[in-house]
Write a structure and sequence with these properties.
This protein is mainly α. The protein has 2 domains: 1-151, ABC transporter type 1, transmembrane domain (ABC transporter transmembrane region fold), CATH 1.20.1560; 157-264. The protein has helices spanning 3-13, 16-44, 48-53, 55-101, 104-108, 113-155, 160-204, 206-211, 215-264, 271-283. The chain is elongated, with a radius of gyration of 26 Å.
Amino acid sequence: MTWDAYKKYLNYAGGWSIAVFVNVILVLFILLQMASNFYMQKWAYLGPEEQQEHFEFYAIVISALTAAAAIFILIRINVQVFAGLRVSKRLHNTLIAYVFRAPINLFFDVTPIGKILNRFSKDLAVIDEQIYFTFGAFLITLWQVIGSLAVTAAAVPLILTVICVFLIFATWLFIYSMKAYRDCYRIESVAMSPILSFFQETFNGNSVIRAFSREDDFQARSCKLINKTTCANQITTGVFGWYSLRLDLMVSVILIAGCAACILLRGTADPVLLSLMLQYQLTL
């Protein structure tokens, strides 16, 4: 996808105001979550008598922060869902308007019916159910990573060297693997069109097929097309698994460095920040 496609999707969703609002809500959610975890860890490292003495204070503060974080995440989900539905509605109306105005000899006579059905079924289903969810997951993961790096830098500044190397390799791995993933997903989408065309043709010629007793031939043809689509889907899943495995290995290196830093600096660094660092590194 080009940047123009992302810009058009953003404009259909409501423009930059929606993007800024969602990001602000996410930042506030991450800050409230980090503050709640900080107070929880701080209370846990108090002595038994101090824990009993300050229990009500920490309970009220942690509960208030958690409730505020829940409210912000609820607002973010509602805004994101309604923005995704707005995009889907506008894209559907635009697409159907173009199809209705398309010339018969230049479009319908040369375009397979399965390709048209694929645009109105699978492609629009992806926009309805996956794209807005993927964007939301990307944004919340991005801000969680930024928050984790901030806590790590505050606890053990020297570990930023390992993180910088990780970011360089992670960026290279993403660019390298997403090329293959994009092509595999395109092949999977293309392989879906013949199935829809074949089902539509079989449905229209059902009486002729039964009259000549050719049900077995059409079942074999249908299974062959489904097998091709399944193979394309498995290849796409394999490429994503290849990328995820290597990314998890690099995250494990950061976790090992964080554990080593906690052991070496257990007497000098703030134990609350060290525990928060390990907690947020585990979420990576």
